[in-house]
Each structure stands twice: as structure tokens, then as C-alpha cells.
Amino acid sequence: MKPISLKPKKRGCLLGILSAIVVIVISGYFIYKSFFSQGYGRWTDYPSFISDPEKFDAVMLKPGMHCDDSPFAFPTTGVIFGLWGQSYGIRTIHTGIDIFSGTEPGITPVYAAYDGYLTRESGWISTVIVRIPNDPLEPNRQIWTYYTHMADVEGNSFISDEFPKGTYEVFVESGTLLGYMGNYSGDPLNPTGLHLHFSIVKDDGTGSFLNETLFKNTIDPSPYFNLTLNQNDNPGDFPVCESTITYEDWGLEE
Ligand SMILES: [Zn+2]
What we know:
- This protein has helices spanning about 5-35, 40-45, 45-50, 220-225, and strands at about 65, 80, 95-100, 110, 115-120, 130, 145-150, 165-170, 175-180, 195-200, 220, 245.
- By secondary structure, it is an alpha+beta fold.
- A hairpin with a 7-residue loop joins β5 (about 115-120) and β6 (about 130).
């Protein structure tokens, strides 16, 4: 009698090991990918930035900066940690850029990045939105620029007195002082780190802005600043100008 072959069993065992390896490799890839899609290359530096922002001078961008022929000027002073398209938790995709100055709330000025018409709705504590009738990159469409967190933890606003609640459609030139960077989140027990959130919001087609909190309603800010601000293109580096830097004359002191 022929001895029973062990081959099929061995093969089954081998298949098991192979599929385990495949599962490990695939899940490893996704863990790796989600790790880097969080931009840990930047965020791992955050504690060190908070303790000594001056160490980050090389990646600290300045107000009024144009990178090459960028349509928008940089609206404040700071290091960009959060990019457009970055995962900020399950089902939350970041709609703009987060710029951190490393100072205290109410100190770092925030300026308009481009000419437009400013609105601050009656309930808005820390936010203004500026309508740009002709998108400089797609002149036939209207876009909106959104600036937020300009208040302290308790909701004391840092928005310029020029723009009280209920301001509608006031023309502002690029370089107009809008307010100061803050850390208001709406929850005094859970403030954000001090930063400016800036985003470009789509128009709804009838002259109003869409809901800014939804990623699909926002636009990649990269070409407006000539900086790599799309998380998919820049998983870990701090965005800096890789071309010629000029400054718009906003009359700021050096
Ligand atoms: Zn943000």
C-alpha cells in the first residue's frame, strides 16, 4: 500500500503562511501609508516647534510673500503643519492649511491674501470670508477665501474692529489687516493649538459660498501660493518656496 502523501497538507500549510505574509505586507502598507498621510514628518516636529519656534526659521513663511508669480500673498507669519487633503481623523479631511506662528494668541497679524469682499456673519466669532469675484487662476469663476481661529479660547475675538459681526461685502485689498491669530475652537476646554486655518472655498453657483467644512467644497491652495500644499504631493515636508521670493509692499516693519 502506498503511504499517504503529506504533500497536500504541506501545500495547505504553505498557502496559510503565504497568505499570512500577504496580509501582513498589505496591512503594513496601509499602516505606513496612514502614518505618513498624517504628515508625521511635520507633526513629529510640533513639540520641538512649540518649545523653540526660532529653530524653524528656515521654514517660517512671512506675510506678503509671493513665491514666484503666485496670485496670493502669504497671509501671516508661520510654519505650515497642516495641509489640504490631510487626514485629521476618521472621515475628516483637512479643507485648508494650518499655519502656526509659535507665539501667543492675539499677537500674530493676519492679512488678506488677495483683494476681495469681506463678510463676517452675525454669529462669527473667529472667522471672516473674502469673496473673490474672479478666481485669478480661473477668471470665470468666483471663489472665497476663509480665515478662522481668530479668537482666544473663551471666544474673545481678535478680528479687526473694522469688521464687526454682521459685516457684509466690505472691499479689502490684499494686505488689509483682518485680525490676529488665535486658538478658538468653540470649546473652551479643548482649544486648538495657536494657528490660522486658511482655505479656498467653492461658490455654490448662485453667489454664495459652500459649506467650508466639507473637503469637496474646497480647492487645492497649492497653485495660488506656488507652494506644495496638497498632502498627496507632500506627505512630510514643510512647504517652502522653491522659487523666487518677493514681498508685496504692505508697509510692514521688518
Ligand atoms: Zn485647519
